What does this fold into?
Amino acid sequence: MTKTMWAAALAASTLLSLGATMATAADLTAAPEAAPVATEAVSVSSPWQVRVRGLGVITQDSGSVTGVPGSDLSFSDSVVPELDISYYFNDNIAAELILGTTYANVYGEGSIAGLDRIGRTWVLPPTLTLQYHFTDLGAFKPYVGAGINYTLFYNQEGASANSLDVKNKFGAALQVGADYMFDDHWGVNFDVKKLFLEPSFDVNVGGTDLSGRANLNPWLIGTGITYRF
It folds into this structure.
């Protein structure tokens, strides 16, 4: 074999070795496949929420009988269970409907104090409020609200009076409260509402028909359990 042939064979062998080395290096340095990116599940709360509260109903002791100078009225306070249902339009805006019933004894005061307990009426005051919830305080979630109330009076009866008829009445409502949430569903609640409620009434005392106004204007102070669906 001539020198030229030996040189050609050596060059070919060298090129084959270099190609194999480069192929091996390419395999070793190839980038690994990207790991799949985990998608985090987002928990979306239901717009519905319920609360069960114990509610103190504290009335304003004021009123009068038309045409009787110096007449005044007072009303009994009570503690009752209450249910409210809320719907959240978004994180900040919600509507709340409260449902509960109680009774009030009506007493004569001032110049009609001798009548003592005039009568009693049961009260159903469904109240709808529109609320703004503050959401930047972590688990503590205060809110304010305003709305409308329609109070129905039923199962009315006289005591010292022969009869008592308190008229159903619309009124305004203001509200402030807060939830403290333990997790996405459960929490505790404290709530205060003021109802502006001054219904008129008819009463018969000793065969005489009279009328007047009862300035109830109650505070509704409640605390209880919150559950968000």
